[in-house]
Amino acid sequence: MRTKTMYLAAILLTQVVIASNAYAASTLEEANLAYKNQNIDQATQLYQQSLQDDPQSPDAKVGLAYCYFVKRQYPRATDQVNEVLAINSTHIRGLLLRGRLNMQSGNLVAAKEAFQQVVAVDPNNVEAHTSLGNALFGLGDEAGADAHYNTVRSLVSPGQ
């Protein structure tokens, strides 16, 4: 009898955990949709709520960081991105935002390095190649910039 009770309790606990994770994922999806629809205040609140449900969610942290970036709250955005990249140094969206934050602050060398990390992990990332081209152009490396702009052209219009 006791084994059956423990078994049922374990099943119930598993269902609660699954439901909790589904709720956190749902909140994150709502936050992503609000951000996509440019409702930044709502997205900020939803990302914060998602982090209450799952404090270690890298996607919620990066989403919140993007909201802070749009709101020009750069130190807060940087803090969120640094937390994510401390755990996962190849988180694509985190690296892209780090690069954008560095571009914003005028640190083109650091921006270049962040975008190079993205290209190393995801060589077909159009945003990374475009941004890397922009950073290189800003650093006076027109040939390097052109190489990345040409990569973007080939990725966007293959065969042309």
UniProtKB/TrEMBL annotation:
It holds the Pfam family TPR_11. PROSITE patterns: TPR. Keywords: Repeat, Signal, TPR repeat. TPR repeats lie at residues 92-125. It comes from Thiogranum longum. Residues 1-24 form the signal peptide. This is TPR repeat protein. The keyword Signal applies.
